[in-house]
Amino acid sequence: MAFVGDLWQPILLSAALVFIWSAVSWTLLPWHNAEWKGLPNHDAVRTAIKTAGFAAGLYMFPWVDDPKARRSPEAMAKFAEGPSGMVTLLQPGPMSMGGMMTKSLLFNLIVSVFVAYVVSHAFGANLATASYGSVFRIAGCVAFMSYAFGTVPDSIWFGKPWKSWLLVAVDAVIFALLVGGTFAGLGR
Question: Could you tell me how far CA 56 lies from the centroid of its own chain?
Fold first, then answer.
């Protein structure tokens, strides 16, 4: 854990820069706006969900409990005729932006600690003499993988549009540039 003491400045600064850029990209830039759409007749859908008594959680429809029954002609017909989908229900009440922002910053700090771990092991005692470009490449690559690849299974398994992942990857490139530059500038 000595690497945390040695690289605390780029850890904190890179996490803060990614947090700031993330806030800017989601609030001021238009590219994430097209990812979300409202349901037609969403008030009726909300009423149906509320009336059914669903708690916060992940739901899939059509739903078949028994894995063997999922291959039955009846289940296959339900999927074929549609609609099918997945729904995430949140806890009732106003969104806690403070809580979500705190968790986001904590996530960025964890990513930066792992970047520091890899950088410290990649260069060891030679970190102080390593070239800017070498540190930038390693730190940026680890940051990109951390921010971009974690959501790929959502597109593979859960139907999240690949366009949404591509937008995540664009953000991840910018995050990687920020993290790589911070570690290359302050970590050597």
Answer: 20
Q: Name the pTM for this structure.
A: 0.87
| 65 φ, ψ (degrees, to nearest 5) | -65, -45
Angle at the Cα of 178 from the Cα atoms of 173 and 181, rounded to 5 degrees: 115
Euclidean distance between CA atoms 109 and 132, whole angstroms: 22
Q: What is the C-alpha separation between 104 and 177, in angstroms, rounded?
A: 18
Beta-sheet pairing, 57-61 with 85-89 = antiparallel
Query: In degrees rounded to 5, what are phi and psi of residue 60?
Result: -130, 145
- Cα–Cα nearest to 135, from 1, 2, 6, 5: 6
Which are the contacts of 50, defined by CB distance < 8 A and separation ≥ 6?
none
Domain map (residue ranges) of the chain: 2-35+96-186, 42-89
Residue appearing with tokens 């570690």: 183
Tens-place pLDDT, residues 109-153:
999 999 999 999 999 989 989 999 999 999 999 999 999 999 999
Angle at 73 between CA 67 and CA 79, to 5 degrees: 75
